[in-house]
Amino acid sequence: MADPAHKAPSAEMLELARAAMARAYAPYSRFPVGAVVRGESGALYAGCNVENAAFPLGSCAEASAISAMIMAGERRITEVLAIGAGPALVSPCGGCPSAAA
Questions:
Q1: pTM (predicted TM-score)
Q2: 59, β-bridge pairs
Q3: Which of 12, 62, 74, 79 is catalytic?
Q4: Is 15 marked active-site?
Q5: Which of 3, 26, 27, 38 lies 20 to 30 A from 55 at CA?
Q6: pLDDT (tens digit, 0 to 9) for every residue of the chain, 101 residues total?
């Protein structure tokens, strides 16, 4: 049974996440990820993963989206969406749940 507290992401969030995923730089893992966070104002901020040969110095998509939100002057996240290529669910990396809290 679905949890009524969890709603489906908006079409706008999905579109932004897909666009961000298309811009990801993932030459090593070949696993592009796009993420969108909604700030308390309702504004949406997108980010993508950016890999670096000096692992783990890259950026994950969620952290990129959070950085965009912070740069815009917001401090509180009300919604997060992360998508990746393929049919399976994508879970955040180990650090992102803490960063989004």
A1: 0.85
A2: 50
A3: 62
A4: no
A5: 38
A6: 445 567 888 999 999 999 999 999 999 999 999 999 999 999 999 999 999 988 778 899 999 999 999 999 999 999 999 999 888 888 777 666 666 66
